[in-house]
Design brief:
Largest sheet: 4 strands, mixed
Structural class: alpha+beta
Shape: elongated
Strand order of the largest sheet: 2-1-3-4
CATH class of one domain: Alpha Beta
Helix content: 25-40%
CATH topology of one domain: Glutaredoxin
Oligomer: single chain
Number of strands: 4
Radius of gyration: 20 Å
CATH superfamily of one domain: Glutaredoxin
Length: 117
């Protein structure tokens, strides 16, 4: 019985480690139903679906309806996207139409770009 456990352990040690991808917690602060706000929502959702499918939570917060939350997060402009998790915390301001900039802000690589690890 002891030999079986050792064999299983050795076999498990040879398997390549599967890296669990982190979940993202994002907050998008907007100001009502303005064109810029709607564009930011659309862009962030599209980027998240393409690059974080199934592993993100996006909370959209209207500053007109929830100003105390904005004060707590020190929002000075809108739209503002805050990446709370994974750390480090990041803030992006604008309509999120520059996908490359958003991906860098989220610490992501565009699909098809391989890391040098």
């Amino acid at each position: 019985m002891m030999a079986k456990r050792r064999a299983t352990t050795k076999a498990a040690a040879r398997k390549p480690a599967v890296r669990k991808l982190p979940r993202y917690l994002l907050r998008l602060y907007i100001t009502g139903a303005t064109t810029k706000s709607m564009l930011a929502i659309e862009n962030v959702r599209r980027i998240c679906e393409q690059h974080l499918e199934g592993r993100y939570e996006l909370e959209v917060i209207d500053l007109y309806k929830n100003l105390p939350l904005a004060r707590g997060d020190q929002i000075i402009a809108a739209p503002t996207l805050i990446k709370e998790l994974p750390r480090p915390l990041r803030r992006l301001i604008g309509d999120m139409s520059d996908e490359k900039r958003v991906l860098v802000g989220l610490d992501l690589r565009p699909r098809g770009v391989r890391s040098r690890e």
